[in-house]
Amino acid sequence: MSWSVVNEGDGLPRIILTEPAGSSAVASTKSPKPIRGGIPICFPQFDNLGYPERYGFARNRLWELDTCPSPLPRSNNHSSVDLILKSTDEDLKTWPHSFELRLRVILHPSKLTLIPRVRNTGSKDFSFTFAIQNYLSVSDVSEIRVEGLETLDYLDNLENGERFTEQGDALTFDGEVDRVYLRTPAKIAIIDHEKKRTLVLRKECLPDAGVWNPWNKKAKALPDFGDEDYKAMLCIDSAVTEAPVILKPLEEWTGCQELSIVSSSYCSGQLDPRIVLHG
Description:
Blueprint: E1 2-7, E2 13-19, E3 41-42, E4 64-65, E5 79-86, H1 89-94, E6 99-108, E7 111-120, E8 126-137, E9 144-147, E10 153-156, E11 162-165, E12 177-181, E13 187-192, E14 197-204, E15 208-213, H2 215-221, E16 233-247, E17 252-254, E18 256-262, H3 273-278
Antiparallel strand pairs: 1-2, 3-8, 4-5, 5-6, 6-7, 7-17, 7-18, 8-16, 9-13, 10-11, 10-12, 12-15, 13-14, 14-18, 15-16
C-alpha cells in the first residue's frame, strides 16, 4: 500500500491513498467542494441527522498542522502527521458550538491508522455524529464480499431511511446501495477475489458503518463521478450515527480506525474469514 498526506496549495490537507483508495477520475480537488475519493472526514454530522449539510462541514474546511499534538509511542517503522480544525465564525453561524477537531494520521508500510479527537471548547453541551469515509479501490464491485455485517440492522437511504435486517451470510453487490449498518463489530472484512486480498477495517468508538456504491444510473447522474467508476470502488465508512456523541464543556471524544491488507483472498482457500473478523 502507498499512503501520503499532501497539500494542494490551498491550505487543505488531503489524505491520498495510491492503494487501496478508490476515487473518481473526474472528482474535483478544488476547495470548498468535497472530494469524491480518498478519506473525507464527516463532522459534525454524518448522513441526515440535524445539521443542514448532510455530511457536515469538516471535509470542506481548511485544516492546519497541529503544533501541540499529544506524544506518539516510539516506533521506527511509521510516519505520522497531526492536523487540527477549529471552529470559525462562519461555522458558528450554522452550528453554534466551539470545538477542536484533531486528526492523527499514522502511516505504516501495510497499515493506515486514523485517530480523530473532538473537544468541546465552549461553555455549553453539544452533540454530534461523525464518520471516516473510505473510498476503496476494488477490482470489480460485483465480485466483492463484505463480511461482518450479516444479521445486522441497517437504515436504507434508498427507502427513505427505513430500517431493515441484513439477511445474507455476506454483503454482495448487484445494484445501487446506500446504507448505514448499526452496532457493527470492531472488524469488517472486504474480500476481493480478483486481487487475491482482503482489506481489514478495524475501528474503535465508531460503532456504525456506512456502505455506498452508486451503480450505473446514479454514476451517470453525478457530475464529479465517471460513468464507469462505480465498478472499481466501494465506500465503507466508520461512523457514529445512531447514538450521537454528547460532550460537556472541556470533554473530549476519541475514535480510531485502522485499514490493513491481508495478501490473500477467501476464494484462494488461504484465508479463513473468521480469523480476519475475530482474530
